[in-house]
Design goal:
This protein is mainly α and about 90 residues long. The chain is about 60% helix and about 5% strand.
């Protein structure tokens, strides 16, 4: 049986449906488009890197197809990492 001392030492509160942590400082806050600050920074960095790479390679390769494939390959790595961090890390 639980005593009042045991209940005071718990770090979560049960609402009957789900448990809510008492310390809400570790809960992720959403900034824009339901993304955290880290995911938002990763998407912005990926966009800057991809566009920069596209415009640099478009002139040197002479075709936009190779430049766009290089852009996709460069952006895919950071976008997938941002989505993995968003979905699979604990709050």
């Amino acid at each position: 049986m639980g005593t009042t001392a045991d209940k005071n030492q718990r770090k979560e509160v049960s609402t009957g449906v789900c448990t809510v942590p008492k310390d809400l400082s570790k809960v992720k806050t959403k900034v824009a488009f339901n993304l955290t600050k880290l995911a938002d920074c990763m998407f912005r960095g990926s966009l800057i890197l991809g566009l920069l790479l596209f415009f640099l390679l478009k002139d040197s390769t002479g075709t936009s197809f190779l430049a766009s494939m290089a852009m996709i390959a460069a952006m895919l790595r950071s976008v997938s990492f941002a989505m993995w961090r968003e979905a699979w890390t604990a709050p």
